[in-house]
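Consider this today:
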Amino acid sequence: MEKMNIISFLSLFVSLVFTIATASSDSGLYPSYYDRVCPEALPTIKRVVEDALAQERRMGASLLRLHFHDCFVNDLVVLSGAHTPGFAQCRTFRDRIYSDTNIDPAFASHLRTICPQVGSDSSLAPLDPTPASFDVKYFTNLVSNKGLLRSDQALFNSGETGELVSEYNGNQNEFFEDFTESMIKMGDIKPLTGNRGQIRNNCRLVN
């Protein structure tokens, strides 16, 4: 079942990548471009990524977030749902489980067994209860104050974004539709050049 969930997620991801890559008229590409110049492109990429997933189940989540962090630097509720598959390292959530108040006490207590105050920086915890599936359990966690990352939990505790978190939590189809549309739009964002953008040493921090 876990393998099937990952493969389904992979199919969504690869489809999105190719839709995004061919969506912009400025690029000179069109949806069937690779059918003519390189008909084996999509099957080859799919096969290689499937092999990578078979060896490392976190790869699917990593690829999805690679696109997110590469294209978009402004934090959007629906795209934050990219955190539904995968895991995070102890060092990224340690401060939250030891100092935040907007966290379920039992959830924090469990995470402290995985992530002590000192050491075990690379120990992993799932971002939601179904880390191999693409679903709305990420939003369910936020509504229950069980967001693993501080930046994720803040979405539910902040006015308008909190309303969207609740909405997606109760409507998986709406989340899927909005996520797909937003990923495509994000892929069409033009790169910032000159002094209009910035190169970050750490994508989490503004220079």
Summary: Residues 22-27, 70-74 have pLDDT under 50 and may be disordered. The longest strand covers residues 87-89.
